[in-house]
Write a structure and sequence with these properties.
Layout: H1 31-42
Length: 57
């Protein structure tokens, strides 16, 4: 029997892509923002799938 804690929202979200990033542009961001991006990609902020856009604020 699994005794692991269920993720918030009931599901884990994995946003890591296997696409080749060589054709994408890059931007400079703060270390805090880079940590947030990595946490979203790893599913640590599940069930969030990304940042809120202007339409959702």
């Amino acid at each position: 029997m699994s005794e692991s804690i269920k993720p918030h929202g009931g599901k884990l979200v994995n946003r890591i892509t296997k696409a080749d990033p060589s054709g994408l542009f890059s931007i400079t961001i703060t270390e805090d923002l880079a940590n947030d991006v990595e946490n979203i990609a790893d599913g640590i902020f599940s069930p969030l799938e990304g940042f809120l856009g202007k339409k959702r604020l």
